[in-house]
Specification:
By secondary structure, this protein is mainly α. It has 15 helices and 6 strands. It folds into 3 domains: 66 residues, Endolytic murein transglycosylase (Dna Ligase, domain 1); 81 residues, no CATH class; 112 residues, no CATH class. Strands 1-2 form a two-stranded antiparallel ribbon. Strands 3-4 form a two-stranded antiparallel ribbon. Strand 5 and strand 6 form a beta hairpin. The N and C termini lie far apart (117 Å).
Length: 351
Amino acid sequence: MSAQKKKTKKTTSASHKGWRIVGYLALVVLLLALYFLFAPNTGSFTQGDYVYIHTGADYQEVKKTLEEGGFVSRINSFDVLAQKSGYPQKVHPGKYLIKKGMSNFSILRLLQSGKQSPVKLVITKLRTRQDFIRLVSRNLEADSAVLQHILTDPNYLSQYGLVSNTALCAVMPNTYEFYWNSSAEKVFKKIAQRYVNFWNNDRKNQAQNLGLTPQQVIIIASIVEEESNKNDEKPNIASVYINRLKIGMKLQADPTARFAYGDFNIKRITSVQTNFESPYNTYWVRGLPPGPICTPSEKSIDAVLKSPHTNYLYFCAKKDFSGYHSFAANLQEHTVNARKYHDALNARGIR
């Protein structure tokens, strides 16, 4: 073999070797890229956890939240991909579920999509505006100060026929679904829409037949709600208060005295509560309180609307502590029933 041929073969071999090295390097780069993209990069949680991105947060805040919250274990590789994808300029606020084993690519795709996990806001019985505000603030980003303003703004509430004292009439127990970053106004508007829908023409006519407004019905229902959890006797309880209203008799409802006094752990109402001066204490004032003393259930509201015609003016808890009540048409009958119940309380040492 000539020297020229040997030189050419050597050059070709070196060239092939060089390309093989380039190929190996390219493969390594590709594998690293795929690793950065698709390898699991979540924290130590076993199932998954939620990351909350606040309204107005920039990318640096998001990155800090992901790192310090343990959502991303290798923040540098995440940062490289985030920068390349343009995510820093497209941050979407919300609540996002980061599942165990998610990669940089899947985390970024989720955050960029803005497809956040919805929040179920479960409203049961609430007693005050502050209870409602706290419930919303614990579950949603909605500004509590804005919500407080909405609940006391007569101009805003007037669209629902409400005032500050009756604002909670619009808050009906149910499960409502929101995005975590919903504004206070969106939250109240959605909840109030259920109130609007509930008061259809049939219910409005029922209220009118009783000589009551929807808000007055809810106020009575709130008292009934606090008096009993027995749905089958709520209509009779409602009839007592409606009968008292009709003849101008004080309602003298224990739950209103407890509400006015502000201690909801009291089990036995005494003169300390009944003598407490407040427009909400129906031992102190005649007629209805200026607003509901809780957010009554739909069953309690309908119990008022469908209350039977009775001659009941009194009721008290039965001595067997079953949760049911004994009803009476006159004070003499009621005194007998009340004595039996108070003797049972004394026997149990309930003060």
